[in-house]
């Protein structure tokens, strides 16, 4: 069960935004990631609880930030309920998208488990609903993901496969690189792995993404 700490930074000026203390693990029916985020001064900011099924679809998502809350799952695309800090107003949403996204490294791992790309796979287009901090406002965006390279690195626990992904925002054309080993993000824009207590769980590769349907993304 990987357990560790990420540091989070502003994408533009690299100002420290805080830390995310996480643990994650594969299970018999998929994968789960749980984390707590703190400010640079150590104050509690929020939490993430994400569970995926064996195909990488989000079967449960719960986000907390600045007293806002989102609960969601893959249902007729993706469906969610967003609750305001007073708890008196809840807004439902549904989009024919493949999965969720956000600032947490959890969503990058979730995407790789959904896509299961290989270096031979073509760039794959995905539609995601991303929740922006600090009020978890939903926004639908289209991305393209490609696995550019996989390299084995020797460690005391055996070879560690590091995957290099190129992620493109299709609305702006902006591209960035994400480095992932199994179910741990090594480096990504605004994210740095600062501490890891146990090795990553093995990656999952092997099928292409279909269109979103009433059961979520399908594998061809």
| Quaternary assembly | single chain
Number of helices: 1
Q: Nearest-angstrom radius of gyration?
A: 17 Å
- Total beta strand runs: 15
Shape: globular
The overall average pLDDT, rounded, is 90
**Which ranges are low-confidence, i.e. pLDDT below 50, for 5 or more consecutive residues?**
213-220
Q: Strands across the major sheet, in which order?
A: 8-7-6-5-4-3-2-1-15-14-13-12-11-10-9
Instruction: Characterize the main sheet.
Output: 15 strands, mixed
- Structural class category: mainly beta
Give the H and E element order.
EEEEEEEEEHEEEEEE
Strand content: over 45%
Helix content: under 10%
Distance between the termini: 30 Å
Number of structural domains? 1
Organism: Streptomyces parvus
Protein name: Glycolipid-binding domain-containing protein
Region (Disordered): 195-220
């Amino acid at each position: 069960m990987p357990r560790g700490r990420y540091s989070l930074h502003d994408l533009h000026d690299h100002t420290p935004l805080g830390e995310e203390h996480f643990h994650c693990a594969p299970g018999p029916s998929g994968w789960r990631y749980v984390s707590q985020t703190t400010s640079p001064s150590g104050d509690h900011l929020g939490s993430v609880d994400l569970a995926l099924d064996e195909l990488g679809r989000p079967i449960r998502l719960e986000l907390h930030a600045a007293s806002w809350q989102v609960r969601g799952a893959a249902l007729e695309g993706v469906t969610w309920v967003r609750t305001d800090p007073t708890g008196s107003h809840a807004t439902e949403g549904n989009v024919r998208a493949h999965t969720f996204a956000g600032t947490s490294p959890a969503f990058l791992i979730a995407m790789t488990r959904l896509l299961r790309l290989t270096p031979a796979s073509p760039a794959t287009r995905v539609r995601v609903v991303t929740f922006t901090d600090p009020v978890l406002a939903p926004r639908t965006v289209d991305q393209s993901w490609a696995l550019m390279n996989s390299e084995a690195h020797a460690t005391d626990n055996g070879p560690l496969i590091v995957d290099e992904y190129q992620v493109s925002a299709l609305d702006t054309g902006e591209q960035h690189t994400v480095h992932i080993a199994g179910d741990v993000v090594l480096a990504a824009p605004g994210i740095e792995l600062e501490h890891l207590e146990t090795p990553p769980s093995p990656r999952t590769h092997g099928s292409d993404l279909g269109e979103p349907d009433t059961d979520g993304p399908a594998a061809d």
